[in-house]
């Protein structure tokens, strides 16, 4: 049986290329995938040699020495055609690879995802979804940064994309969909929310109405839809809050022997919680609506995160996600929200 094939940007990320290459090695070994390691050939081969994997037939180096740095405008990637991101996306567009994984400049990954890999014809704007933990499972928040100036029809498409993600990837049979607003009553919110609400009511989604900020981590909804500007603020604030809470707990534990003893007894539970919140466990977040899987992983991604990002891309192919997404857009969206 033919191996699935993925292009991995080995120039992007805080720990490139070492951790990225090690993650590719793990993916090839554990997932039996063919990996195109796209980046500075000399540096990549140096790591492969050190790891004894230079002759691994599942690992193929594709030379692309340039990188789009985090401080550079995302549009740079469309001009720098020998950057690792552009070359990796081109491999996907040409059918040589079946998905793209990167820990590099997020805006640049979005740019190549939209304009090089390309979007499905029925999707006007691909969106980023993130599955946030709640006491009952996970809540899909969409969009979290791919689109910062959305129209009502885009939010309707995001809702259907999120519904499909919750159903096909998270296994939720009939996802409960909410529209993020400042109040649960119909008519609350800004103009975008007010105009989107009636369109969502026309869909065949399990639309329950407006969701408030408190619902995001409560498990009240399975999918919460918002503009990418709002979603990105929520995502980054949540990450910052998590780090702050951990740091504050550490400081409190230092204060007394009794607190240290309590922390020791709680350690198994704390480790389970940490695993739920650890981005390395999830691998990356997908750009949904792109023609092939495009997975954006954290800038601090280690080898485990890269391997799991490949695993995410693999799951999308196994589930035939895009075909089901296109079917849902055609059958669930009102006419006003179709391309």
Record keyword descriptors for this entry.
single chain, 339 residues, alpha/beta, Isopropylmalate Dehydrogenase, 2 domains, eleven-stranded mixed beta sheet, 12 helices, 11 strands, 47% helix
Plain-language structure description:
The longest helix is centred in the last third of the chain and has 26 residues, at 228-253. The mean pLDDT is 88. The two termini are 37 Å apart. Helix content is 47%, strand content 16%. It is α/β, with parallel strands linked by helices. The protein has an 11-stranded mixed beta sheet with strand order 3-2-1-4-11-10-5-6-9-7-8, with helices on both faces.
Q: Could you describe the largest sheet, including whether it forms a barrel? A: 11 strands, mixed
**Total domains:** 2
Number of helices: 12
Structural class: alpha/beta
Low-pLDDT regions: none
Q: In brief, what are we looking at here?
A:
The protein is α/β, with parallel strands linked by helices and 339 residues long.
List the helices and strands and how they pair.
Blueprint: E1 5-9, H1 18-31, E2 34-39, H2 41-50, E3 59-63, H3 76-79, H4 84-93, E4 100-102, H5 106-117, E5 127-134, E6 137-142, H6 152-168, E7 176-180, H7 191-202, E8 206-211, E9 223-225, H8 228-253, H9 257-277, H10 279-282, E10 285-288, E11 294-296, H11 303-318, H12 321-332
């Amino acid at each position: 049986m033919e191996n699935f094939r993925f292009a991995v940007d080995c120039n992007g990320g805080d720990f490139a290329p070492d951790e990225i290459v090690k993650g590719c090695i793990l993916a090839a070994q554990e997932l039996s995938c063919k990996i195109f390691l796209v980046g500075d050939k000399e540096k990549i081969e140096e790591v492969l040699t050190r790891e004894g994997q230079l002759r691994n037939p599942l690992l193929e180096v594709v030379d692309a020495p340039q990188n789009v740095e985090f401080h550079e405008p995302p549009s740079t990637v469309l001009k720098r055609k020998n950057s690792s991101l552009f070359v990796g996306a081109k491999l996907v567009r040409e059918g040589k690879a079946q998905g793209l994984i990167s820990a590099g400049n997020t805006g640049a990954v979005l740019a190549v995802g939209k304009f090089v890999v390309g979007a499905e014809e029925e999707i006007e704007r691909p969106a980023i979804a993130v599955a946030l933990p709640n006491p009952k499972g996970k809540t899909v928040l969409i969009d979290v940064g791919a689109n910062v100036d959305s129209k009502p029809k885009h939010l309707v498409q995001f809702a259907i994309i999120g519904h499909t993600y919750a159903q096909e990837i998270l296994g939720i049979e009939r996802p409960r969909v909410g529209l993020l607003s400042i109040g649960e009553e119909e008519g609350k919110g800004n103009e975008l929310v007010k105009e989107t609400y009636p369109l969502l009511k026309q869909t065949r989604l399990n639309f329950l109405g407006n969701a408030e900020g408190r619902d995001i981590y409560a498990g009240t909804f399975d999918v919460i839809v918002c503009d990418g500007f709002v979603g990105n603020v929520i995502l980054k604030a949540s990450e910052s809050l998590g780090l702050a809470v951990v740091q504050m707990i550490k400081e409190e534990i230092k204060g007394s022997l009794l607190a240290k003893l309590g922390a020791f007894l709680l350690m198994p539970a704390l480790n389970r919680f940490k695993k739920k919140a650890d981005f390395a466990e999830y691998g990356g977040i997908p750009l949904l609506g792109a023609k092939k899987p495009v997975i954006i992983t954290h800038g601090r991604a280690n080898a485990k995160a890269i391997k799991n990002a490949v695993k995410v891309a693999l799951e999308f192919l196994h589930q035939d996600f895009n075909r089901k997404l296109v079917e849902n857009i055609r059958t669930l969206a009102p006419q006003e929200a179709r391309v």
